[in-house]
Amino acid sequence: MLKWFISYLSNRKQYVAMKNYESEFETAHTLHINDKVIKNVASGKYLGILIDNDLKWIKHIKYLYNKLIKFVSIFNKIRSELPFEILRLSYFAFVHSHLSYGIAIYGNTTTNHLSKLLVLNNRLLRILQHKPFNTHTIDFYNTYFTLPPQLLHTDQILIFMHRYVHNRSELLVIFSTYFEEKQFTHHHNTRHKHDFHTHFVQTEFGKRITKYKRCKLWNNLPDDVKGKDHVILLDLD
């Protein structure tokens, strides 16, 4: 793994150093590997995702917005020429595919940062569905049986947690003991003993830590939903 990582850095010639808000010192340095200079950059693309050094995902969201905004004019031109099903397929092919790719990662940002994508997505759905301006946004998503970006993010987290609970062998070995059930952290026979243990956090940043967020979302599900052995799509209501 280390050999692959060094090779990857050498080929990319740049790396992103995550900010340490608790440190007074700048931790980013220029690296030298195999006589090659590896420069520190504020953001870089990996597998199609723009990663910034403070993990706010602003640059990736802007990148997605610029990629999708062109479909406003395209969809306005074709919406009267094509049937409902073709328009629906066009949305999933050209818009939803980009929104959903990596949403479990870049969706872990603030609602404010995601709002730009949400407004654009609502606009595209309204155009394709010939909906008036006063239509409730829930109707857009119910019509195409899909979810807005923030709920797509939640949906992907819960799908992962469902696999962890019911089909853990399908996940990478590193996740085999990633979460702790409450029954192993205390010996009280409560109805929440099979929930996952979470540490107390107060800050908004702490609430977005992946491990905490996944446990919290899963613990908040009704018991009958957590017990289902198949994945269900989230209900918008």
Evaluate the radius of gyration: 21 Å
| Large-scale geometry | globular
How many structural domains are formed by the residues? Answer: 3
The number of E-state strands comes to: 5
Strand content: 5-15%
Strand order of the largest sheet: 1-3-2
User: Roughly how many Å apart are the termini?
Assistant: 44 Å
Fraction of residues in helix: 40-55%
Which class best fits the helix and strand makeup?
mainly alpha
Enumerate how many helices there are, as a single number.
11
What can you tell me about this protein's structure?
- With 237 residues, the chain is mostly helical.
- It folds into three domains: 2-41, no CATH class; 54-146, no CATH class; 154-226, no CATH class.
- It has eleven helices and five strands, in the order αβββββαααααααααα.
- It has helices at residues 2-12, 58-68, 71-78, 84-100, 103-106, 111-129, 137-144, 149-166, 204-207, 210-219, 223-226, and strands spanning 14-16, 31-33, 36-41, 43-46, 49-52.
- The protein has a three-stranded mixed sheet, with helices on one face.
- A hairpin with a 2-residue loop joins strand 2 (31-33) and strand 3 (36-41).
- Helix 3 packs parallel to helix 6 and helix 6 (111-129) crosses helix 7 (137-144).
- The longest helix has 19 residues, at 111-129.
- It is globular.
